[in-house]
Amino acid sequence: MTEQTTAVPDAAVPLEAAATPDTGAAGPAAAAPRDRRALRAVLRWTAAVLVFGAAGAGTAYGIARAERTDVPGLSTKGDGRWAYPALVRPTPPPGAPLPFAADNPDGIHYAGLTQLLLPAPRGSAPDAGLKLEKDSAVTVDTFLEEYEPSARDKLRAQFDLNGLRQIAGRGWTTPDGTRTRVYLLRYHASGFADTFKGCGADMELNGVKQVVTDEVWNKAKVEQVSPAVEGLKALEEAVPFGDEQTRIGCVESGDIRAVILQSRKGGAAAVPLHQAVILQNQLLQ
Fold this sequence. Notes:
Helices cover about 30% and strands about 20% of the residues. It is α+β, with helices and mostly antiparallel strands. The longest helix has 28 residues, at about 30-55.
């Protein structure tokens, strides 16, 4: 995503990609205690950025750009977060309101869908296997390849009936072998977006036997009790899985739904998925 350098005041607030350059990914069993601590820290930090953002761009910038050791809850290093480019909320077209502004309560996103996509982290390689059209557009058929053949016709019918406008995607692979795909689905309004049932515990992903709730995420989300994490879900492929494990992130934001998939041979670490969900949500606020 190209960083925007001109924006209306609220849109000009940088969104820090709280991460470390460490791209290693431990197996789920070994990573669980660290994942729990890291997720709590990320959630606390995210809420702080949003609160300070409401108070003023200067204050938010100071919090966002501070070193991790200078911000409470971010002193732990090497917890598995990825290093993303600095995020900047996209600028809507002239005269268009920001999503969730007083004159846009339905949360319509007027910025280009590609601008709203989470950028790839530093050190990653583009996913050559993800079929993209011009401007990162993804066809419905390409998106549905992520699902079991038996689930595709039902989802396609839902898209046709409920006002799906477009899909955009981005994919990358990190040096530890984790493959990430991020999809944004734009609808005509939030009410239509609410009909999307393709991201949840009952989703039928291609090659995934069973999807279950990520309990580490859920526990931290309950303890955080913050509006910053409403409409966000983290799920995982149940153990035992095959050669690789898939983790899933779901984001609900007005007229847009985000589906984030991360797969890795031997097991996918939780922290990178949690981080991607939070950062993608920030770009959609």
